[in-house]
Amino acid sequence: MNAFKTGAWTVAFVASMISVSRNDPKLHGAATIAADVVVLIAFWIPFIYGIFVFVRNRKAKRSYASVDKPLLAQETSYPPQYKNLTSEGSFVPVEQPPPARERRASYNHTRDTRFETFREQRRKKSATFIFLHGLGDDAGGWVNIAQQFQSAQKLPYLNWIFPNACFNQEASTNAWYTPTAFSPIPVGRSSSGNASDSEHREDHNEATQLEILESAEYICTLVDQEIENGIDVERIVIGGFSQGCAVALITGLGSRYAGKIGGIVGLSGYLPDGKVIENAMKSTEGDGKMKLFLAHGARDMLVPDSRNPFCWTRMTRIRPVLH
User: Fold this and answer.
1) Cα–Cα nearest to 196, from 111, 276, 309
2) Is 3 exposed, middle or buried (0-12, 13-18, 19+ CB in 10 A)?
3) What is the pLDDT of residues 207-266, one digit of tens each?
4) 167: which strand partners?
5) Among positive and negative, which fits the CA dihedral 143, 145, 148, 149?
6) Region (Disordered) spans which residues (predicted)?
């Protein structure tokens, strides 16, 4: 509409100028011509602006392609883990964190790339202590114990190894096996009171028992490496805390090194139950020289302290040990 008005006024202006110049040039003074030019420009300004807006919008329309799903229009701009998210609610699982968090070892330690095993390599060693952390912990929580012994020049012949458990999907943390809760202590009975073996038994399912034996086999591979390095099997001690204690006990009683290592150290742990584990412990042999040390906190709210004497009784029934 603006273009039509501007064109019509331009044609009328040109025709008027021609007519006036032919009839009487004196009547068309400078003031009249200036007024006509101003009115003509006033009509041309919106027309020119309209053309500018039209061209700009046309270029913008070519730059942006129409899409049906706006969330997918800039898919590559999202982080990789959110790349496939849409408004329809389709989700992709977030990648699990790597097993065991990164920790800086001391200057005299190197790290096993599989389970971040910490070793002291400065001097020639004649004995080895393998210690397993508990549920939700890692090797970094126990390395300072070895560092304290080394700085105090205590047990300089001892090689310390602190392996890390894998990340357990069900527990969402580091674990030697899928954890299970203990049955509560019966009302009216002290945690340190006497009870039958059946009241203390916590049978694990077959899958969990296999996980325990698998972790014990991994510890056996560490023993293999120490024997290859010249350490006598009778000078290798395996210990652990809580869940690590359970794996250490099974390694000393139901693995291929059952009864052959120097000893077992168990802190605030228990001896797992189950037919698969029982069969594994019955199928192994030993000479009865393996030593045993068990300790348990009297106010342990996670693993009842009443399981400590029960654990000791079971172990001595299965295999003779020195204490």
Assistant:
1) 309
2) exposed
3) 888 999 999 999 999 999 999 999 999 999 999 999 999 999 999 988 999 889 999 999
4) 174
5) negative
6) 87-109
